[in-house]
Design goal:
Elements: H1 3-18, E1 23-28, E2 31-36, H2 45-64, E3 83-86, E4 91-97, E5 102-105, E6 121-122, E7 127-133, E8 136-141, E9 146-151, E10 158-159, E11 164-170
Helix pairs in contact: 1-2
């Protein structure tokens, strides 16, 4: 795992804390990470401490050369790792992942508006981005209906197969 990946993971942890997501699973080929936060009803202090500890564990694991997936020692992932539930807020987040390796583009051209932005309501089958692979432009369609919560990849960035691109609040 690269330093940029660790930074991205820390940013994702902060996002999950902000929206009080209780559990999150990430499966990127041989890298599997499961985050589970304790969220007391009265305050979010336990959640902040838990995720900060997890971020420090991941950073320490990276520095020591240990595999980052070993840091969050949790039981096996649920049957559908793409959906995360926050029990206290009844928020259901779905991850749209890249079906191919290539370069992600959020808009059809540099001058154009992005296909989707946080807050947009999207339908299943709607184009949310483009991945360029071997000089071919491949449209990425949403596999769920809901509201775009976060775009996880900036336009123009190389991406991998199965890499999370968007978080969608189902509904």
């Amino acid at each position: 795992m690269k330093a940029q990946d660790i930074d991205d993971l820390k940013q994702l942890i902060e996002f999950l804390k902000e929206y009080q997501v209780a559990e999150f699973d990430l499966d990127r080929g041989d890298l599997k990470i499961r985050l589970k936060f304790n969220q007391p009803a009265a305050s979010s202090a336990g959640s902040s401490a838990g995720s900060s500890d997890l971020a420090r564990l991941l950073t320490a694991a990276q520095a020591a050369g240990a595999p980052p997936a070993a840091a969050p020692a949790e039981p096996a992932a649920p049957a559908n790792p793409e959906v995360s539930l926050a029990a206290e807020t009844d928020v259901c987040l779905h991850t749209i992942k890249s079906p191919i390796v290539g370069t992600f583009y959020a808009a059809p051209s540099q001058e154009a508006e992005p296909f989707v932005s946080p807050g947009d309501h999207i339908a299943k089958g709607q184009v949310v981005g483009i991945v360029e692979a071997m000089k071919l432009m491949n449209e990425i369609e949403s596999d769920a209906t809901g509201e775009v919560v976060k775009c996880l990849v900036p336009s123009g960035q190389p991406i991998e197969y199965g890499q999370p691109l968007f978080l969608i609040r189902l509904g």
